Amino acid sequence: MDKNTWIGFLLIAAIIVGFTMLNRPSKEELAERQRQQDSIALVQASIAEAMRLTDSITAAEEAQAPAAVEVKETKPEEQWVTLQNEHLRLTLSTYGGAIQRAELLDYHASGDSINPLCLFRADEASFGFTLVTINNRILQTSQLVFTPVQSEAANKAILRLPGNTEDAWLDFVYELSEDYMVRFELVPHNMQNELAQNINSLELQWRQLIPQQEQGRKFEERYAQLQYMLVGGEMEKLSESKDDSQKESARVKWIGYKDQFFSTVLIADDAFTSSQFNSTLQSKYSGYIKEYATHTSVPFDLTGKTPTGFRWYMGPNHYHTLKAYDAGVEKENRLYLNKLVPLGWKIVSWINTALVIPMFDLFTSWGLHIGIVILLMTIVIKLIILPFVFVSYKSSAKMRVLRPQIDEINAKYPAEKMQERQQATMQLYQQAGVSPMSGCLPLLFQFPVLMAMFWFLPTAIELRGKSLLWADDLSTYDAVFHWGVNIPLLGDHLSLFCLLMTICNFGYTYITMQSQATDPNMKFMKYMMYAMPLMFLFIFNDYAAGLSYYYLVSLFLTILQTMIFRWTLNDEKMLKEMEENKKKKAGKQKSRWMQRMEEMQREQQKLAREQAKAAYKRR
Predict the structure, then answer these.
(1) Domain 80-342 of CATH type 2.70.98.90
(2) Closest CA to 400 of 366, 372, 359, 436
(3) Which tens digits make up the pLDDT trace of 290-322?
(4) CA angle, 569 then 570 then 575, to 5°
(5) Which of 61, 153, 176, 501 qualifies as a cystine partner to 552, CB 3.0-4.6 A?
(6) Under 8 Å CB-to-CB from 224, ≥6 apart: which residues?
(7) Residue 474 — φ and ψ, nearest 5°?
């Protein structure tokens, strides 16, 4: 270090020593500090001795006093009340006063042939109302304890929520009918001094988990849905494929929690208002399909003169069972619960209600096996559309016979003269008596029927649990191979009816391609025709075995009738007839349709020439 650094350190040390010497206390100040510390120590010792004596006295008093009794708040023991008929068994709990368990005695869950099917259990559902007391306390009925009251009727149960006085209570009254319907009423008695005076409605909370009841979870998820009907008959629904929520300001008549084959429906005597609906998908391994939740309001008469009434429907999504509740009811008061059964678009649902369902009911009423019923339905449908299919096949056969002449027209008019080629082809068709549009007519009749069966069979509860050959349950897939690995689009199994349908579809495609006139230059379309059956294998592998069985039978009958048509129609004879038609129509005036087609072609040619001239001038 240099000289300046040493001088700096010495100055700092001198300042510190000087400051310490100046602030050092005198002898008198040191004596006063010692006296204060001795006084503080004496006081602390006195306090410690006093506390020791106090603890000794308290211990002696506790030893002489009797032992105190520990008081615990006890909750009344839960009780259950059962209502049952030949179809439905309900278990009511005094904890919350709600239905704790609902069992359908006529049905079983998939894989369980012993126990009745359970729509929900205690831990899977909650139902209750929000009560506001006269001193503004908020109570939830789902957290209160009710008392069962003896009822004279065997099908009736009363759960009573007592008030603060002996003559005040709120009753939950349940009455079970002979089928799947339950009457439910809230009946207050002398509750004017118990609940808020300005109350005229109650908030209702209803939550329910939907357990997986079927083997095919994919289909059960597709048909599990929260639906509700507005006052007036308009249906609304939440998404079945994702989490969804919806606020509804309009008046709601009923709210339905449904899965593929069963529903729990709450129906208001008046209406629900200011409703909030929620639907939440559940994990694949949770054992549940969806969770539904509703928060809504219902009218409430505090005096009890007008009970707040509901009806519960807890039963199958069976079309006739649901539709029977509207029998003899005026249109404005109908429930339309049968809309819980998905029957497709409007035209498709009309075919289902007017043709498919009556035919299905007729054949099942004969006591036939379900496989025979579907076979008979397929035969009847094929007979109905047979004339149109024959016209289509004959038109295709004529076009096949005319193929050599069409090739001559194509050779005469190159691709640059497409309009002349089309005009000559249409003239040939007209002279031969062939209508290219006639081949589309059968599709117009077949497609709605095929779609009607596509919607009806997977949702028909009559197929549930019914077996056919190797298929134990026609309402779900008939897996014959399980490989335990989920293959994209195909899944983890192979359904035999679906495989047979695919093979039959390949055969039908081959026969069709052989009997139709095809352009050699359009090989891609030929490959696409063979790709379609393979696509159906991936599409229908998870579908109901009953639907695949129907399509298998339908394709087999289609192949059979195609072979019959081929045997009955002779190409040489058809060609001779068409040549005679040409001679007859050679000097006749063209039809109006042909005249319009030619006029349209001339207009197109004129427009094309004008566009070409305009483009040339712009150059």
Answers:
(1) yes
(2) 436
(3) 999 999 999 999 988 888 999 999 999 999 999
(4) 115
(5) 501
(6) 210, 240, 258, 259, 260, 289, 290
(7) -75, -10
Of 77, 163, 92, 164, nearest to 122 by C-alpha is: 92
Closest CA to 340 of 261, 244, 453: 261
Going from the C-alpha of 376 to that of each of 114, 271, 362, the distances in angstroms are 33, 45, 11
Q: Each residue of 456-497: pLDDT tens digit? A: 999 999 999 999 999 999 999 998 888 877 777 787 889 999
- At residue 357, φ and ψ (nearest 5 deg) are -65, -45
Dist. CA 325–CA 332, nearest whole Å: 13
Region for 54 from its dihedrals, namely left if φ exceeds 0, alpha if ψ lies in -120 to 50, beta otherwise: alpha
Would you state the pLDDT for residue 508? 86
List, in sequence order, every residue forming a beta bridge with 211; answer none if it has no partner. 288
Burial class (CB within 10 angstroms; exposed 0-12, middle 13-18, buried 19+) of 100 = buried
Q: Tell me which residue has tokens 């040619």.
A: 605
Q: Of the candidates 272, 262, 277, which has an alpha carbon nearest to the alpha carbon of residue 314?
A: 262
What's at 605, amino acid-wise? Q
Global pTM reads 0.76
Do 246 and 236 touch, CB atoms closer than 8 A? yes
Q: Which helix (H) or strand (E) holds 421?
A: helix 418-432
pLDDT category at 605 given cuts 50, 70, 90 is low
Rounded CA separation 356/337 (Å): 19
Single-letter residue type at 167 = D
CA 108 from centre of chain: 21
DSSP state of 492: E
Q: Is 274 helix (H, G, I), strand (E, B) or coil?
A: strand
Confidence of residue 396 (pLDDT cuts 50, 70, 90): confident
Residues 259-268 pLDDT 10s? 999 999 999 9
- Contact criterion met (CB below 8 Å) for 338 and 349: no
Task: Report the C-alpha gap between 344 and 469 in whole angstroms.
Answer: 29
| Token pair 């496989």: residue | 371
Average pLDDT over residues 388-411: 75
